[in-house]
Amino acid sequence: MPELELARAERAGEWLIVPLSDSVPESLAAGSHPHHVRQWLLALAVFPDKWVNRLFSVGGLKLDGGRLWLEAFPKAGLARHEWAAGDAESGGVTADVLFEDDWCLVMNSWSGFPFGCKRA
User: Fold this and answer.
1) Cβ-count burial of 80 within 10 angstroms (0-12 exposed, 13-18 middle, 19+ buried)?
2) CA 49/CA 31 separation, integer angstroms
3) Which of 5, 32, 57, 100 is an S-S bond match for 76, by CB 3.0 to 4.6 Å?
4) Which positions of the chain have pLDDT values less than 70?
């Protein structure tokens, strides 16, 4: 069974590319269905199951040329944030999103940027 070489992993845009240490078995040949890749990753138990399942659900798992491709750095979806368009409270200025997932938002903002809920 191939093992992941996490120390040699590299980022390419939105993707984390992880080389495999051994030859890939026929069941996981290049272009394998993402479901088989998902099952293999869950069996390895290297990454959290919830994350692997999320990657599978959005098409973020690929196996190609002895390398595992994980869409680990998706682009931030700015359209749903009211401050992305520069609302009146921020004076029409936007903040840069550095990272966003279902639980965390990391942004580069200016001093005095209003955080938290608006109160009526």
Assistant:
1) exposed
2) 22
3) 100
4) 1-2, 23-27, 29-31, 76-95, 110, 112-120
